[in-house]
């Protein structure tokens, strides 16, 4: 019996020693989690993200070429330095005029209602056919996304958001999930 107690004490001490070593060697949660970055890493990330465009995957294989900028009316008032550099004197006023429809181009976007994106053209055509039965004319477009071909089913283009929203509500009333897609003119 005494031998059993001694063996139990030795095994208990070994277990306690193992736990103590484990606890002191493992990093403490919430204290050692932060990784510190060097100035070189921050500079490299800044260079990498300088010309980053978050919408680049949306452009597809043949991105649309940007339209030439419309001439911006400048007010030859006291801010002649801004006018001399070609900047508008009242950017908020120009924005408000564009939103109200009084500008040369009331809405700088085309709108599409997307009724799905599929991996196979057969699935996309089936979705287009279902929309056709509702009286909605949809188009299937092919696009590469993350290295895979995606077949999108879209209705449009619409010149203003209100028309696109009406069509979106009509398609959703038919039981389809939709998304409003905005594309710059």
Give the SSE layout:
Elements: H1 2-25, H2 39-49, H3 80-84, H4 91-100, E1 109-118, H5 121-133, E2 139-145, E3 148-158, H6 161-173, E4 179-184
Antiparallel strand pairs: 1-3, 1-4, 2-3
Describe the model.
The chain is α+β, with helices and mostly antiparallel strands and 185 residues long. The chain has a domain at 109-184: 2-Layer Sandwich (Alpha-Beta Plaits), CATH 3.30.70. It has helices at residues 2-25, 39-49, 80-84, 91-100, 121-133, 161-173, and strands at residues 109-118, 139-145, 148-158, 179-184. The protein has a 4-stranded antiparallel sheet, with helices on one face. A hairpin with a 2-residue loop joins strand 2 (139-145) and strand 3. The longest helix is centred in the first third of the chain and has 24 residues, at 2-25. Mean pLDDT is 75; it is low at 73-77 and 80-84.
CATH top level label of the domain at 109-184: Alpha Beta
**Strand percent estimate:** 15-25%
CATH architecture of the domain at 109-184: 2-Layer Sandwich
What string gives the helices and strands in order? HHHHEHEEHE
Spatial extent as radius of gyration: 31 Å
Query: What integer is the average pLDDT?
Result: 75
Head-to-tail CA distance between termini: 91 Å
Helical residue percent?
A: 40-55%
List keywords for this structure.
four-stranded antiparallel beta sheet, Alpha-Beta Plaits, 185 residues
């Amino acid at each position: 019996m005494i031998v059993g107690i001694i063996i139990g004490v030795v095994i208990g001490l070994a277990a306690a020693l193992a736990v103590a070593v484990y606890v002191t060697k493992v990093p403490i949660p919430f204290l050692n989690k932060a990784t510190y970055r060097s100035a070189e890493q921050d500079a490299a990330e800044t260079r990498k993200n300088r010309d980053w465009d978050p919408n680049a995957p949306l452009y597809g294989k043949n991105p649309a070429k940007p339209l030439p900028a419309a001439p911006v009316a400048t007010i030859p008032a006291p801010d002649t330095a801004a006018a001399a550099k070609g900047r508008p004197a009242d950017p908020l006023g120009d924005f408000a005029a564009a939103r109200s429809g009084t500008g040369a181009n009331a809405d700088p976007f085309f709108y599409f209602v997307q009724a799905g994106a599929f991996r196979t053209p057969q699935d996309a055509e089936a979705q287009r056919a279902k929309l056709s039965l509702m009286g909605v004319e949809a188009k299937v477009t092919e696009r590469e996304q993350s290295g895979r071909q995606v077949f999108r089913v879209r209705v449009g283009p619409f010149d203003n958001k209100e028309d696109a929203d009406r069509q979106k509500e009509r398609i959703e009333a038919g039981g389809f999930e939709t998304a409003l897609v905005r594309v710059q003119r």
